[in-house]
Amino acid sequence: MMDWTDRHCRYLHRQLSGEALLYTEMVTSPALLRGGAMHLLDHDVAEHPVALQLGGSDPVELAKAARIGADAGYDEINLNVGCPSDRVQSGTFGAVLMRHPKLVADCVSAMRAEVDIEVTVKCRIGVDDQDPEEVLPEFLARVVGTGCERVIIHARKAWLKGLSPKENRDVPPLDYELVHKMKGYFPNLHISINGGISTLDHARDLLESGLDGVMVGRAAYHQPSDILSAADPVIYGVGEVTNAEQAVHAMLPYIEAHLTAGGRLHQVTRHMLGLFAGRPGARSWRRMLSEEANKKGAGPELVLAALEHMSQIAQDVEAAQIS
Question: Is the distance from CB of 242 to CB of 224 less than 8 angstroms?
Fold first, then answer.
């Protein structure tokens, strides 16, 4: 979710669900320690609970980065062992680490020794020609041996050569059964599943099947209302269903503050394009924000105008259906 789940995106998602654990985009330890990318740690207190996802392969650097993240106020540090992108591979980050379970264990141990907050791992079931039935149990055993109590498993292999990052999200087949098998092997390990989950009902079914958690990525970004609006009552048993209109109005003070601080409207609204996905007028909403939000002087009034225009289209559609 690099370049996707930034602080503006997370603030929006928090307006839809007060309970879901949010994750940052992956931030590499070298970027924090040597690249001066401390701005990537910026977040609003309203985002909590929120986890910082780190990329890296040097135990010493990751421990320092974890300390920086903990000092910044994050609730969890997550080590990414699942991203298959070329730039991540070139730095020995992400999914390539599935080939080095001992190194991952060393990294997790170093991070846990440095911080008091929880350190978790997100992984794949394997990479390239690995046999997931063999390598995943060994990998998890190494991680559990460090004292790590929670992992997120993307239920697909990653093909580091031959498939693009986008293809790696769709082409390798999902193996939910293997993830369930891991829960049987490691009953005390909190296992969340990721990959191919596009509805809240599907997430609930997976939880009811015996898994401990569900991570939703692309669907939560592209159709945030569908995934998050009812998450609190349906998954957590608290609160009420929210809606996209409520989220839009809740974002207006945040947008105003962002503009006052020198930001641009599109930096926030680019994450709001999917709020009304599948609803009448959604195309108008996306078009107005996409075409106008980047213009100088664009502000909250554009968001309200887009909302009003979309609402009028929805009313016209409803009237036509009645007649």
Answer: no
The pTM assigned to this predicted structure is 0.93
Of 83, 107, 123, 148, the active-site residue reads 83
**Alpha carbons within 13 A on the beta-carbon side of 309:** 14
* Whether residue 83 lies in the annotated active site: yes
113-137: average pLDDT: 97
* Adjacent-strand bridge partners of 50: 22
- The range of the structural domain enclosing residue 120 comes to 7-236
Rg of the chain in Å (alpha carbons): 21
Pair (213, 289) in one structural domain: no
Q: Is 311 part of any domain?
A: yes
